[in-house]
Batch of 4 targets.
Target 1
Amino acid sequence: MQKRMLVALGFLFSVSGLVAQSHTIQYEKYTLPNGLKVILHEDHSAPVVAVTALYHVGSKNEDTARTGFAHFFEHLLFEGSDNIKRGEFDKYITNAGGALNANTSQDRTFYYELLPSNQLELGLWLESERMMHAKIEQIGVNTQREVVKEEKRERMDNRPYGSFLTEMLRRSFKVHPYRWAPIGSMDHLNAAKLEEFINFYKTFYVPNNCVLSIAGDFKVAELKQKIEAYFGPIAKGTKPIPRPTIQEPALGGEVRDIIYDNIQLSGVFQAYRAPKQGGDEYYAFNVLSTILSGGESSRMTKTIVDKKQQAAFAGSQPFFNEDAGLFITLALANMGVAPATLEQSIDSVVNDLKTNLVGEREFQKVKNQITTDLVASNGTMAGIAESLANYEVYFGDANLINTELEKYNKVTREDVLKVAQKYLNKENRVVLYYLPKEKTATK
Amino acid sequence: MKKLIYIALLSVPLVTMGQTLDRTKAPAPAKAPVIQVANPVQFTLPNGLKVFVVKNTKLPRVTATLALDIDGFAEGDIAGVADMSGQLMKRGTATKSKAVLDEAVEFLGGNLSTSSQSASASSLKSNFPKLFELMAEVVLHPAFNSDELEKVRKQSLSGLESSKDDANAISGNVLKKLVYGATHPFGEMTTSATVKKVTVSDVKTFYAKYWKPNIGFLVFVGDIEPATAKLLAEKNFGSWQKGEAVAQNFPKPAVLNKPIVAIVDRPASVQSVVAIASTVEIGPGSPNVIPGSVMNNILGGGFSGRLFANLREKHGFTYGAYSSLNPNRQIGFFQAGASVRNEKTDSSIQELLSEINIIRNEKVGDTELSRMKNYLAGGFARSLENPATIANFALNVARYKLPADYYQNYLTNLAAVNSTKVQEVAKLILNPSQMYIVVVGNAKQIAKGLEKYGTVKYYDIEGNETAAPQEPKVTINFTPQALMDKVVQGYGGKEAIEKIKDLELKGTASLMGQNLDVAQTRVLPGNATMTMSMGGMVMSKQALVNGNYSVAQQGQEAPITPEVKESLEESTFIVPEMMYLQKGYQLKIVGAEKVEGKDAIDVEITTPSGKVSHRFYDAITYLLLKTSVTQEVPGRGSVTQQQFYKSYKNMEGLNVASEQVLDLGQIKLNINFTSIKLNQGLKATDLK
């Protein structure tokens, strides 16, 4: 049961805190005349290749009356193209022994194909077809609308604590588009006309809003020619690409609420408003999060789960995005433990970070853990391709894949104390209790 | 040492870029990469520990895994001891408490894990020697601390408790017990009873019996020189004393000559979990393994399998239907199955068997075959990205005594599989006459007709054979009015009931371990409240007080519909059977049914507003045993909620159920009323 719960929780966070690093990753980066950014990492250690396309569009780019569009496109763009019949996109990959998928965050949409290296060109063909002339038709819209509804039922409505992100975001942000989650509103999707979908496609899914990042077993010189052949003819987008500029004011006081869900164990979720990703405070926060919940010896696990045995799981998660961030702590109460008791324990662990400097050995431990994690994230071609694209899009610097560790190394114990004192305050947070839904009995 | 992996890429012919690309069709694949999987460095320590080193310098990290060559454990009445000892192993050593050990591992930025027959550690290269020392300490000097055992036991028990409500878990357990046999290590079942029996001394005995270097494989993968690995292995595991390995001669499972349909009755089920399975004589390295994998994947390997196409896409019986084939040197295992709608249970078994027969009796088509081979070849190539794959290959070669070039030749052997071979293997592996057909579901609704597939037998959730759910033997020859009179009599009689002016029940319920306080109070005539709260926080409240109706669910007021009014009014009666016929309720005696082993009379009740429910009365005492209501829930089909009434106590002449069980299928709520008070002189104004 516990294992299942942890897996379920893993799904709640589609964007993870720590990103890539290792010994030097060589890559080549260039831009086609139509604006498509290309990043290539050549590596012959296994006969595999990861073809990825990152579009810089997420739920924050959506119209307030059309939320869920970006995530909807994650599905819609598998429907086919002028040359790919409906429903065949993924069959090409499966029949080639490959795997594919996509995901959508508040900031970007990411498509990828993992292939044996002799099928690399298939990946280029599929991604360029998707970008050049995807099929945006009523029949596909209708089909995918049902699929997305089913996904919402499965992942949010029927999954324990599955609504947590949506519930947390709408209380944490009042004006910024971060106030809704990528899944968006089914009513908005129902109301949208075909022209709106076509318009969204022509606005955002254009070469000048995309990074094509490919890693694996190929020769760069040959691949560049193929990329030119497949992607060169795609026209540059002509519409302006809307990006929100709105500033979210401070939360202005603690927000508390109770959510009733089909769950067995009560949950306590806290989200503190936090800075956007990439700055010094962002790195300090990631270190802080590892202190709280990185492994068995971390403070939350050791104190709340093992010593006090109040929770089946306790952890924290930096949820930092392009325009703003949240720092989330959460715990699932053990049998018979009241949520308020659990919250007190979480608060006491968190408050300690605001009053006492982290010990030197513990601080070193956390740095060691972060270093190991950064190295591990470069273990697969898919991981490398995604990291390169993320760093390029978010920070304009793909080379962070090689230098990010320095940013972590610069974080001091005082920096951790400072961010804790500045952000981890009651008036700056939303607290949600998840309680088991009591079913109606027959009389 | 040879190169670890040498992948020769044949030169790929270039697309000539001058010419226009033909976008209308998918590009042809380039020539397949030639894959060479060379052997890792191997050596054996004097104590018999076999060591493998797979050097891979792509990342500066190292993983070491120690695995014992054990197929399974005969655990008997302490089943669970193997898993528990595996978990306990990393919860402290002779000199380090759990907290000290965890901190030491994580200070190195490392991960350390243990199981019943393995231990694994990984970290950056620089910290690896120290981490490896900790791994050896954990393996050679585990503390097996009793406080930690209790923590592990608590987790196991709560996991087992929740799996009792999980039809898939029940299916898996019963299936294994039947197919392998109750005393076969693969068929033994871990239950709450066996987990409760495990002692620290059992764990120590288990450890002493199985953890021996001479049946161990130690595999290093990553940025490490074989010479360094050798030094580390000798230094840390050299002192480990060899011992006699436990013989792994498992009994041969009995083979059926006629299928058995094994039904596990689960009245709350709205879906049946159907699984068709048998043992198969297929071990690692058998020439049938690769064709068998092709055959199994065509039959039921995921979204592109035939079972999926048939049961989901064509018939819509299920969300997914799959099969699996697991070679094992003791005895292999085949299984096909799906979770299907109750009313499609019979048809689903029919279709599953039909697909099994088709793949036995007809050759697979060329396109289907070549697609599947491409799929498997691609998956094989992609798996090589993970250096641990190479280590596993080496381990399998050593463990199962495969030819040294087994994996090197994998793609060639895969390419050689043809439709004749697939059919041959299907005939060998799939023997419908030897299969168990396990169905976990609502027997009353699904059992009829299943005898055509084999001998029908019934089992409980622990796989013990039970009697078939019996048809109740009740003669019903009275009118609803006569029955209601008997019920009223059963409760204590009209006179006793009418003496009651107020009734207050207080108790607790446990909802998956959460404690709830439950209170039901009635003040006659016409007032009632029911509340459920947790830790002082009211979670739900229903009340009818002085003509004011209110229902608060999950913190929100619900609208008061005529149905809600009706049900609140009904709840104000001590024995509503006294008023049904007077107030225009329609009663129909539908038949008889067994309720928890008792014969019961099933009455369908339609309220004046048209809501239908069933009440089941004991055929001997006429006390209420169960109520049940079935509702359509959008998107989930029909859902049945049942409430059981138990442990009646006589209080001042009135029989009151002191225990109520609310069964919602996946969730069960057990309410125990610890305080039942009558005629305290309560007033409606006392009700809050």
Note: Chain A touches chain B through 84 residues (CB under 8 Å).
Target 2
Amino acid sequence: MNGLETRRRPTRIILWAALAAVLVLYGFPFVYLLLTSFKTPLDAIAVPPQVLPSQWTLDNYVAALSKEGVVPALINSVATAVLSTAFSLALGVPAAYAITRFRTPSGRIFVVAALVTRMVPTIAVGAPLVETMRRLGISDTTIGLAIAHTTISLPLSIWLMSSFFEAVPIELEEAAKVDGSDRLQAFRHVVLPVVSGGLAVTAIFAFLASWNEFLFALLLTSVRAQTTPIVIANFQTQFGLDWGGMTALSAVYSVPVILLTLALQRHIVAGLTLGAVKG
Amino acid sequence: MRLTDRRFALVLIAPAALFLAAFVAWPLLRFVSNAFYEISPMAGGPRKFVGFENFATAFSSPAFQGAALRTIVYTVIVVALEFTFGLAVALVFAALGSRSAVFRTVFMYPLMVAPVVAGLLWRFLLIDNFGILNELLRRIGLLHSTDQIGWLSNPRIALFSVAMPDIWLTTSFITLVLFAGLQNVPGDVIEAARIDGVRFPTLLFRIILPLLRPVIAVALIVRGIDAARAFDIILIQTNGGPQDSTTTLSLLIYRTMTRNGDPGLASAMGTVYLIVMLAVAAVAIFAIWRPGGDEA
């Protein structure tokens, strides 16, 4: 409990009312997207617009999912995000551990460099990467896009994991070493299990960074490796202004991650606030 | 053979460092060096060294000046409104205490929505003639006809309108961070101020906000950088229009690179943008955050 909590009844009632108003305003846009996705195509662009569908239908979902390239793009999105998450964890976890545990000069330089990466405009990396991917022979492939997405999620993973490793008491490892384990064994069998919650948080954020990313996908893929955000964006040109289909595909793409968030909210709040609050 | 701690640390850091060197630092160097060349848009086309000519062209072009100004305005709108709204909601959550926990979760959901989805969704809400926002405003009597406000078609307000989904998308981040910061404000400090008869505005501006300073700094810097880089959320709503009124630097650079086919000029613009971002962020970090320094 904290000194900011108010116990005066009238104030509390006003605050609850204000909160309810905020939540309605905040929730409405997405609820309206869901409602529109169940309207008939004509209802979706009716003048004047109605909030509720006059007739509930799944037509938009059927039409959107049967469009050419939509299902492959969903598969690409999952594959790219999973691969990019794996890259970030494989590279970021050992680096974060070394940075927090040994505090060498190289580690400090590296933290600053990773922080700078966060400020770079995406296009300044994305445009030259087109050429790099071509040279490596991975243009328009899931692995190429996953590498590009890792440039975003790796600094984030290092930042998050460093905070989690910092919370592990060094005595724990020393005890393991006394028992005859070497540093690598101590890391794998003692430290990693302790930070498993942190690994989950980091994985979620790496996954989301890739899942929602747009500009790299636009620059680095054309047909084969295209992800869903690009397909959603194309609904407005390729197929005319198909608002019904767009809302249906957006719902398919967003609802799983929103549900995931609600299920794992404790972890996600930890990840979002961790670095910032520790300062 | 046993590695020293220093060597062991280096071995663990090296893969990540090499990855960032190959896929961030090297492309970035190439991008910056491209700014000094005139480059044919064709792959493998001719390159000619032109010194600072691209920079001169960029600085003297009204398109670049306009986009730079719009990027600043957009960033200020987004950060100022997100901070005000985010702080207000964080204070409401703190005042309501633990029973507001469920609602904190609900409030968080837009953070998971893809910016491209948020942009399209808001374009749909704001669109002329069948957008629901104007219709709802008409129903409650604020507008007498739904075409009274052309959110995305009126060049004078479009930059503000395109910022709305960005604000909707990430105010939750500010709220979460500030709420977590508020939990660390010592209760007895606030109790003491209350007993001394300090009123809420004074409490907020003289005690709470100064105590939250490092948290606020991090939240503003993170959001400021992201708002200044905003791309897909604007592209999808207006594609920079109407009449370039929403063309920020990231859109202008993208367009110069692709549609106008002038990678050299685009790189010069991007280089200036990058340097300014780094400078502003560095100043912000040292001036506001003052890591480890005590608040005077």
Note: The radius of gyration of chain A is 23 Å.
Target 3
Amino acid sequence: MTKRKTQPPAEKKGLLSVLPLGSVGQDILRIVADSLQGILRIPVDLLEAEPLPPHTFMEARNQYNAMAIIRFLSENHSHNSFKTLGITGKDLCNPILTYVFGEAYMNGPSAVMSYHRLHQGQTEDPVSREQFLDRVVKVALHEIGHTFNLPHCHTGRCVMRASNNLKELDDKLNYLCDYCELFLFESLKKALDVHRNA
Amino acid sequence: MSRKHRFMVVDDELIVRESLSAWLEQEGSVVSKAESGEEALKLMEQNFYDVLFVDIKMPGIGGFGLLQKVKELFPTTLVVIITAYGTVDHAVEALRLGANDFLVKPFDPEGLGLLVAKLLEHRRLVEETQYLRTEVTRYRGGLDEIIGSSPAMVELFETIREVAGSESSILILGETGTGKELIARAIHANSKRMGGPFVPINCGAIPESLIESEIFGYEKGSFTGAVRPKRGLIEVAEDGSLFLDEVGEITPKMQVDLLRVLQDKRFYRVGSVEPLRADFRLISATHQDLHKKIADGSFRQDFFYRINVISLRVPPLRERREDIPILAKHFVKRFAMETNRNVDSIDESAMKILVDYPWPGNVRELENVVERAVVTSRKRIITADAFAYLMPGVPCVPVTAAPRSLQDAEVAHIRSVLEESDWNISRAAKVLGVDRTTLHKKIRKHDLQPANPKNSDMTVPAK
């Protein structure tokens, strides 16, 4: 039997945007945009870089508050595109966690990710550029998955599996399992219908 | 995960509620948020929660106040205390009050993930242990399964412990639904024969024509259909206890046969001349007045003396009303577990209805009433409306004693169907799903007569 996958219809631009927050390497932006476009099969816009909003900096922790960044993106970018993923090289945390690789609300309009900690290897040496970019793609897909209402996946090595450290991040694959893919396309289809009627 | 876990984040800071609930929602869990202990308690009355994350410093009853209330009212819910200013004193106090863990904000994401996994695993193990413990107790039939702290029950427990060790026959007297079989199982479980089988026989449920072959067994060819030899229940009960429930229903012929077994400690399979050794302890039970049956000649006096070496009386529920709350709570816990429903307790007004009700069906009726309430309850606490039909003047369930034995129920049912069909035997037999001959036999056996002979379509044949 031929495996059939639910495919969303082709759409115009403006559905998903990748926003560099501060100075972000072109190779990072390109691989994130390409991966999202390849997996979600919708056009992804690469936006002009913007500085991180100063009010999101938590001086006491020397980190940026991911929740505050998401709120900023939702307030300032949701009219431009349906979902926005912010990328930064600064370290992120939230009021209850010491650090986060990324942050998103379930079914929310925006997500944010940081590659600040993704260079770290098991020894003092950083990991290869290839492994680093693989980690970046996994975090980006994972956070965008949450914005399409995908919860953490408990089967296999799906990219939606929770990863609270770099080893767990390395252990998972950089794509969705069949179930999560199905749920994502159902959610995407619903979102596109809403977007069209808006 | 087998089901969606339910969490609640209780914190007066919006940003903490949002961050922690967002993290938990990503796990696929259902998360509620409350900004005070009072709001949390209100939500808990409506829904079941697996784990609560509670901040210490909140206006109103505060984190520790909420922790105490939760442990008192909803003891199965786990509580994690969170604080921004962790001191050893706070941690000790939280654990002393029953908190399941203590976290200082901000948490390490890896630690939070491990903590949640550990708490849910702990919960699963507690539930599993409770279930297995109940099953083991029920299987072994120990005294733990009999619930009661009233003086009458305490005295009964003492008597059971005293008499269990002896080999004497025991007769248990008590109204229907008082738990006579549980008492019999407890006697067996506390006796020297506890390693042997406990074989219950409901004498009222086995047809007269079958009871002999069921109890004594038979040899191949002893009657039509005996294509292979079969062990009787007396043989099965070897080295164990034989429990004759509803012993008052036993036929005079069988009383003679059993009397012989009890005297000679030997018996014969149907169709055999080879004596077999009978080695069992006899426990009997009845709700009937055997003295009355002896007086009217339907029960043999010598058999009565043989089975009634020691007699125990199980008090009806109306004579031990102080046991109703603990029994009701026990049933709530059991049925909540068996039916997988999140019901924790019964409120005061509902309990008052239970305590005041006459309970003609005794503990069995209470068990059924609580099961119904648990299954139909939409809240965690069962309220008075669940038992409104038990109150006087509410005609939903008749308070008068309904027929309790299988035979009484059969007689009542046949009579009502016959009356409905104006004693038209063909019509009544069709409704009852039996043939006319069977219905005629039942009418003769139970000596049924039309309530109004003029309206009936038949003349009842002579017995």
Note: The domain at 318-390 of chain B is CATH 1.10.8.60 (Helicase, Ruva Protein; domain 3).
Target 4
Amino acid sequence: MNEQITNVLLVGVGGQGILLASEILSEAAMLAGYDVKKSEIHGMSQRGGSVVSHVRYGKQVFSPIVPEGEGDILFGFELMETCRSLPLLKPGGTVVANDLKISPPSVLMGQELYPEGLVERIRSSFPDFMLLDGQQMAGSAGNVRAANTVLLGAVSKKLDIAEQHWMKALEKMVPSKALDVNRKAFQLGRDYK
Amino acid sequence: MKEILSGNEAIARGAFEAGCLVACAYPGTPSTEILENTIKYKEINSSWAPNEKVALEVAIGASFGGGRALCTMKHVGVNVAADPLFTLAYTGVRGGLVLVVADDPEMHSSQNEQDSRNYARFAKVPMLEPSDSLECKEFTRLAFELSEQYDMPVMLRSCTRISHGKSIVDLGERVTGLPLPKLEKNPAKLVMLPGNARVRHPLVEASLQKLSAAASSMAINRSELRDRSIGIITSGVCYQYVREVLPNASTLKLGMVNPLPYDLIREFASQVDKLYIVEELDPFIEQQVRAMGINAIGKELISLCGELTPGRLRSSFCLPQPEAAPAEKLPGRPPNMCPGCPHRGVFFALNQLKAYVTGDIGCYTLGFMPPLSAMDTCVCMGASIGMATGVTKVVSAEEKKKVVAVIGDSTFLHTGINGLMDMVYNNSPATVVILDNSITAMTGRQDNPASGFTLMDNPANAINIPLLCKSLGVKNIRIVNPLDLEETRRVLAEEMERPETSVIITNKPCVLIKREDVFQKGPVYAVESEKCTGCRACLKIGCPAIEWRPAGDGSKKGKAYIDPLLCTGCDVCRQLCKFDAIGSR
């Protein structure tokens, strides 16, 4: 078991299932025997705003938020939000991102364009970069809404938490009628190369 | 058994384990989920009150009846509940009474970042401050015990990072054997007339002194000696940042911030070379430590504003920052009203009518954001109506017609009714719009006295808002469908013109209400591309379901597109299209 603290950031847009994914990750880390802390902001910012969830686990965790510039893994549900949170990562950190663009209000209203070349920008700063089409993969698992679980599966490969703990955490946190689809979605993400 | 709980979940669990019988609150971020979790325990009678003052009064009654009671609120809620709080300090309790207050440093979801620790000192009430979820649970239990032991209400201070942070908690059992609640008369203690209150006040001061003396040996106030060249006094979530950033420093972790453990502070100060105080917001501990004649460094290093983070603490102590990628310049992503939100049309009309809008607190405060841009003031819960009355007292007759107060159903019931009483009583010509979406939406859709259900999900009386306004003396009451832009605009224009108080009540529910038969989605709309001229009229309502798609040839041309997954079929955009390009699919 890794005694160092592992710092994971889950970022995206309110309503994408980020909180559920961070709950599953925290639960799996606890089952694996780690101390765990998690933090995020609810309320005003959730009305379609940016969401950043911090999950930290290790032998003993103090701060509930990841110290700036010490993130090990950035787990992005949306490209622009992934890019926005890059300063939270340590140099050489890992990025796992969903290939999805959600336009913010200024872009919807035609005042600005959605920025181009985000994937290249991320890759040039963080070569350890994995890009997935979470929606498409979740669709093949049976429900596009399980995209967050596909991504979680992909991230799980990068973390020192055994598969059995992930499965137990999924069983606990996902409603039983959606469990089969989510198990498949998780596996698709985990097997993605 | 171990579970990962948020601070709010852990406080609810702590209340359960402490044998709490009554929990009462008005929702407010970041405190809301405490009561949403006490309902999991059938032993606790949990309820939403119309405002924080009533919530505290309910808890006081439960305590005077002999039961343990919990009351929770956000920091600004204490302003509303301050009246009973200050006198409760004199009466003391029968059953233990714990008041949880959740501060919001950084104002993630608040209009100010007042530091509630000042209230504890001002009101002469003990205050505990947990620094993770386990402490949230343990300190809640302890707060109930201290409350009964010292005959005082006890405050528990949380903050956004504690309430909404999660960590591992060991669950315990509910205490048994508490005395059964029963009426018992004790007027000398509970009737605060001057003669009685004069007797009580010295007792309060004596209890605080006794508690302060005991505090130095309480386990929750903990001296951790490591490297003695630096000693840091801290509490709450700041303790975690100190341990993260300065792991070798000696720390005095205060679990109780009022009254302070003076002997322990003196001892710690004498054991370290240089003493620092690390606290968010006000120099609450620092000023008292300095008043003891001890030299300490605090606000010279740590900001008075905003929340602390590990990075900010590193900067304060001039420690090197880790190398990080530069921040990218990207379009912002501010919060927005939901697709189909019934508030949108009202703000669109207010903008067109160039109204001067006194605003209030709720989702509709987002009516301030462009492109709706129709809110001119926002101060506190219920303030919109009083402010509208005040504005009409000073401006010209022509400008008086522009003054419109907007307030939600829950906020109107919270503290808006008194404002309307005054508006009618003193004959202000302003117009009030009550945005009745049948729920307390911003904090996450909580029921209220007009929604027809209680927190425990039992059917309840639903206040008839038009009748309530009528009984206050409002002669002009109009009900409008806010999804009908023409009607909304016409009624607003008519009532703004009228030289006496009028109330307009909108009648469409929040799109997020989960209860069946409340909100019904209409047919999904689409843009007929051939008919769309790219005039951008539909973009003026700022609906997240409508997207501008540029032609892609570098010109300013393009067309509108409606996302079928987001559209609720509210019909508002169709009414804006002059070219009949928008319709149901």
Note: Chain B touches chain A through 58 residues (CB under 8 Å).
